[in-house]
Input
Amino acid sequence: MKKTLLAALAVLSCGAAWADYPEKPVTLVVPFSAGGPTDKVARDLAEAMRKPLNATLVIENVGGAGGTLGATRVSKAAADGYTLLLHHVSMATSPSLYRNLGYKTLDDFEYLGMINEVPMTLIGRPTMPAGSYAELSKWIDANRGKINLANAGLGSASHLCGLLYQSTLKVDMITVPYKGTAPAMTDLIGGQVDLMCDQTTNTTSQIESGKVKAYAVTTTRRLTTPALAKLPTLDEVGLKGFNVSIWHGLYAPKGTPKAVLDKLNAALKTALKDADFHKRQEALGAVIVTDARVNPAEHKKFVEAEIAKWGPIIKAAGQYAD
Output
């Protein structure tokens, strides 16, 4: 009886200690450089969470090593709710890509909820002879062993999509990694490489301007964006079950008090319903998450499934980093 009472008092005391959270600005770590798609999502979310959280969220860009440096920084930060991480699908792929990861994805973070999903597109150089996906498929069969597939670097969205595409087709292509999307896109437009699979945030304007050829989208449903609405899905052209998008989630260091986590999750859910946030995300081609994955437990369950999905693909490709 006495022990039970003491335990209850301890819980009440802990909750009271965090009743005034947050009392200062909250740092939101983005594990990539400023100006990129993930940075844009973070800045939009920071603005949308400001009012419901009643605090300013300050963006800190900690780029490098495919996003693992920023994630490591948060995993080792004080568990007080004042340092958060906004990360994308690399949260699930890094355990397979990096031999010496500085954190444990499923053990070193508190999961706060998912934010959005960004579709991807399969695009080609403007001089590609294929004008449709059916023609591209024939071109790929006729040019096996000679096809150059660009990506923005190890662990990037375009790298992951390219791995899944090759694995599904059972066709090995010459992977050409770049230091970012911009140089990869420049060479694709210039005809130095043949294909690339990347986020709509990076490809839509190039497709609209006719600088690249677009063949398909990677989601199971067609997109409604005017420039992409006529593109078939890879699933409907024969790659059954092909489905990949770049999702973003929010995390806190392991051990952050439940009272703080509850406040952060509530602020996140409110932000995801914000009209201005929706407009900004739609402009990026992103889809706001509205299902159970906005809850911590379902968010973590989803990441576990993504780890299981990408692990064998990365292992089969044999593309690792130290």
Observations:
- The chain is about 40% helix and 20% strand.
- Residues 158 and 170 are 18 Å apart (CA to CA).
- The chain has a mean pLDDT of 92.
